[in-house]
Amino acid sequence: MASKNPSEPSATESNRIKVWYRFVPREGWLPYDTEGLWATRLSGDTARVEDVPFFQNGVAEGEIVRFTTDADGLHWAKERVEASGNCTIRVLPVPSGPLGRSARAVHERLSPFGLGGEAFSEEFPLVALTVPADADLGGIKALLIRGQEDGWWHFEVGWATDVWRDA
Fold first, then answer.
1. Residue by residue, what is the 3-state secondary structure of the chain?
2. Is residue 133 a contact partner of residue 86, using CB atoms and an 8 Å limit?
3. Which residues are paired to 48 by β-bridges?
4. Radius of gyration of the chain (CA)
5. In this predicted model, what pLDDT tens digit does every residue of 124-153 receive, in sequence order?
6. Is 30 exposed, middle or buried (0-12, 13-18, 19+ CB in 10 A)?
7. pLDDT (tens digit, 9 = 90+) per residue, 75-95?
8. Which of 127, 50, 34 minimizes the C-alpha distance to 86?
9. 62-96: string of b/e by CB count within 10 Å (b at 16+)?
10. C-alpha span between 164 and 167 (Å, rounded)
């Protein structure tokens, strides 16, 4: 029985790529015009997004996208091939509010819903969350709205499904 060389990437690791998105920076926001999202390559020009976007609108974790590869080897997203049914929500705690600048406090408030996500940085505690299609969408929306009204955070929807909009 042959043993695997630990320095060789596994099939999953070798299929892991960054898919890049280009967008117009928003005024008053961070000055980025691209965002790279980790993805799993499925074919020569498709990949499943395995990351939650902090800046790019119109995409959610789990979606299959088509990309092109430029001369520098960068993979640029072109179109969605298959929707995941997930939504992307971003939450930024209000520094003077009851949660302070704590991304952890945002996660704790939303933890009953089992949402996955990550914080951008300690300096900029923006929390990007993936909301699965089968989550309690009405409960999540109600908490997000209440938290904004109570001064806990500001939130935005980066990508929503019809099911989210109807909840």
1. CCCCCCCCCCHHHHCEEEEEEECCCCCCCCCCCEEEEEEEECCCCEEEECCCCCCCCCCCCCCEEEEEECCCCCEEEEEEEECCCCEEEEEEECCCCCCCCCHHHHHHHHHHHCCEEEECCCCCCCEEEEECCCCCHHHHHHHHHHHHHCCCEEEEEEECCHHHHHC
2. yes
3. 40, 64
4. 18
5. 999 999 999 999 999 999 999 999 999 999
6. exposed
7. 999 999 999 999 999 999 999
8. 50
9. bbbbebeeeeeeebebeebbeebebbbbbbbbbee
10. 5
Cβ atoms of 144 and 91 within 8 Å: the answer is: yes
Length of the chain, in residues: 167
Structure tokens that stand for 64 in this block: 């299959």
User: pTM for this one?
Assistant: 0.87
